[in-house]
Amino acid sequence: MRKVAADPKGVDSGSHFMDGDHALAEGALAAGCRFFAGYPITPSTEVAERFAERCPHVGGLFIQMEDEIASIAALIGGAWGGQKVMTVTSGPGFSLMMENIGLAVMTETPMVICNVQRCGPSTGLPTLTAQQDMMQVRWGSQGDYRIIALSPDSPQECFDLAIEAFNLSETYRVPVFIMTDETVGHMHEKVVVPPAEQIEVLDRNWYTGPKEDYRPYDFTGNLPAPMVKAGDGYRFHTTGLTHDERGYPAGSVEVHKKLLDHLIGKIDNNVDKISKTEDSGLGDAEVVVISYGITSRIAAKAIADGRKAGIKVGAMRLITVWPLCENRIREIASKVKGIVVPEINMGQVVLEVERVVGGRCKVISVPHAGGAVHDPEVILDAIKEAVK
Amino acid sequence: MNAPMTDEERFRKENPMSEFLRMERMPHIWCPGCGIGTVVNSFAEALKKSDLDMDKVAVVSGIGCTGRVAGYMKFDSLHTTHGRAIPVATGLKLANPDMKVVVVSGDGDLTGIGGNHFIHAARRNMDITVICVNNFTYGMTGGQVTPTTPTKANASTTPYGNYEYPFSLPFLADACGATYVARWTSLHARNITNSISEALKHKGFSFIEVITPCTTLYARRNRLGDGLDALQYYHDDSEIVHGADTREVDIEFQSKIKMGTFVHREKPTYLEAVNTHYANVIGDEYQLYGKTTPEREAEKKAQEQANQGSK
Amino acid sequence: MRFGKLKQKTGIVHINKLWCKGCGFCVKYCPTGVLELSKEYNHKGYHPPYVKHADQCRLCKFCEVICPEFTIYVTDEEEENHSA
After folding, report:
1. A193: buried, middle or exposed (CB in 10 Å: 19+, 13-18, 0-12)?
2. Which domain holds residue B298?
């Protein structure tokens, strides 16, 4: 894969005061995304609006499709047409996208999907924050597969992770999700956009060999095959059916196993390269708070208060939520008394943490039904409980 | 040492369709007497006659019997999810405007589950060609009722006869803004080819409906005989009415079938509208994928001159 | 009628019996009645067509287009002889 500097046309360098949604759009443009298909939904619409405004000036195309199903379908066409592509949505639209997320996974189509989470189920609290789609992003489409999901905690990180998301999706040929939330999406903060030459973006891994040897798939269980784009004479085929390396349907148990081993392996075998966390105070910690997105900023207050009260508490912020950094969590679990997992849902990522910890230490869930962030006191109480 | 070719291998190699079909995937899965193969042949004939660069043709299909067309045709091809061929084709066309994108799919796929996409692509005059193989049934799942199944016809989910009102697809396409609309039956292979030729040349949303037999399900359930009986019906009861008012071309159970080119009009395509609008609003610095409109036009002109020179 | 030096076109019909599903479209819609369904079975159990009146083929290639199985094609006799 070729590392290149960002195309300066898409980079609005300088210091800005902007919300997370706008920062996502800027990050995508900086990453080289020039095709966006979307459908309005609160609280994600600002991303689409920003993109629509910036597009004609930076050489990109924005289309508002008839629904979210069409939006993600258009991304699949757009990616095979040769563009870096993105869409953005929230809960109900995310549900509509599920089937074609599966198609993107199956056809190993790189794309970035942002979910600015709001409260569900159903229409729920459309304008209020939540982190309730964390399991949906992991398991929402039918069948077994792996995806990558990132969770920014600030508008600056929305910008940074948008670039990271594109780079990951090009490397692993997988849909990459930016699972932000209404609070981060609508929060205005300082966002520094570096000069284009300081932004590292990955070009698509283009195939350059002889046409007759091209195979759109390579089931190595590790990095995927290079891609081609429509119109270059490779006459590729791609399908949502179980397929062989040529992309042709192959309805056998053996081929299906090989395919699935690859789709899962390319992520599972690279967890250490993909996964990023921000850790603090882990050295002497007896309790560790594992959180992500906006909740980690609330947890930071509880952790500071805990330290003041003499509790040895550390923090692990999951920048990459999926794949979960299981080995690192296991390592922490064997050293501490307890792990506290606050999240704005009724306990989702905590289920995976519990599984990974496997009884090595206490795991305390701090759920929140959504619509607001936690009261830091509640997290502090859980920290006190964990250290007992 | 190369083994001598068996007859079948030679046939795969020497068949003129080998330029258009992934011959290694033949024979196909379609039933005896099915019309999809004829439509594919007619499409290939139209491509043969066109001056298109075959590397710039893409075929997109949804799910179902006709959904398999993308996998059999030797072009850049995407076999997508049920009903979503049109938005995938839209994305492909917009991301790579040099492509000639053709959607080949069935009636249930395009106008049932994918109906919303169909009407909006027509409304936008998206520059794609849509070939709808209409056999009045969901074949792959066993003969259920579709949005085009004529009233009174029997389907596995209307076992006592269909009581719904069907879509007349040319009327639907016309009403939604399609700029080229034609209908034929699979017996009229030459006419299908001519229509597809026109559609490939046409700028904007072109729609061709081909009435085809589903012998295994629709014909059997309705006691209409085999493929030959279906073609006989098309032969006896079809009528060419070019330019017909699309309000008057609906098909009832085993009724007369009006066919021909119903709509052929000029209107800026989606991308033309985008480019013209932004060139007006933003000016010469407006660009799409790294090229400004004057640059694009100069390139196009040079290409056209080069083409004329080579002729 | 006389057409000067114009010659009738004659085609050679190539049939791959293996893919045929015996729909009979080619037999029925050949305008000059070149083909007929054979009594023999192919490995799928269908009766594929055979060329009964080879000299009648006028190279219209309608059998090639109407065949849903891509299992018939027609070549120009003159070109075949020329290239052979």
Report:
1. buried
2. 271-310
